[in-house]
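Backbone shape codes
____________________
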Amino acid sequence: MNILRVMERARNKKGIEAIVGAVLLIVITVVAAVLLYLWFTGYLTGTASKAPQINTVQQFIVTGASISSSGQVTAYVENTGNVPVTIAQANVLNSTNGAVVCAAIPGGSGSGAPTSPTNLSPTSVSSGGSVGTVTFSCSSPTLKPGQSYTIQLISNSGVSAEYTTTAS
């Protein structure tokens, strides 16, 4: 009988060891899942809080524009982004076919023809909802009163905005 009792105890110990092993595996799995969850939510929170800092693209719209009978072009630019906008080029486009009728760049000294840009001034609009006025003149004889033209402004980063108006 002693042998049977020893064998019975040995069987019972193996059963307890299996239960303890299973409980330990469950505890390790739960702890690993909690650590993974905490790491992942911390990573997402950190990434989301940095998102506004990543957006450094120039954003602007042309809120209005006019072309006078003397060829003076005035465009009103609103900065809708969070970085300053620098206008690097302005074009007057034929609204019908999109051809460039007049061009302007900072420091330009030409007549305004596409191959001979005129001077563009001023060229910067600070950030955060600021509005600036960009002016240039076109001595190109192709600007006709009563005809519709599109004013296109292009920033130094290649972002463009347009506004269609009628020459007076």
Q: What stands out?
A: The chain has a mean pLDDT of 84. Strands lie at 60-67, 72-79, 85-94, 100-105, 118-119, 124-125, 131-137, 148-155, 160-166. The chain has two domains: 1-54, 60-166.
